[in-house]
Amino acid sequence: MRPQASRHLPEPFRIKMVEPIHLIPVEQREERLREAGYNLFAIKAEDIFIDLLTDSGTGAMSQEQWAALMQGDESYAGARSYHRLKRAVEDIFGYRHFVPTHQGRAAENILSAVLVKPGNSIPSNMHFDTTDANIRARGGLPVNLVGESAYDVQDPHPFKGNMDVARLEAFIRETGVENIPFGMVTITNNAGGGQPVSMANLRAIADVYRGRGIPFFIDAARFAENCYFIQQREAGFSDRSVREIAREVFGLADGMLMSAKKDAIVNIGGLLCMNDADVFDHVRNELILREGFPTYGGLAGRDLDAIAVGLYEGMDEAYLSYRVAQTAYLASRINEVGVPTIQPPGGHAVYLDARAVLPQITQAEFPAHALAIELYRVGGIRGVEIGSVMFGRTDAATGKVQYPKLELVRLALPRRTYTQSHMDYVVETLAKIKERATAIRGYRITYAPPVLRHFTARFDPL
Ligand SMILES: Cc1ncc(COP(=O)(O)O)c(C=O)c1O
Question: For the whole prediction, is pTM greater than 0.85?
Answer without folding.
Answer: yes
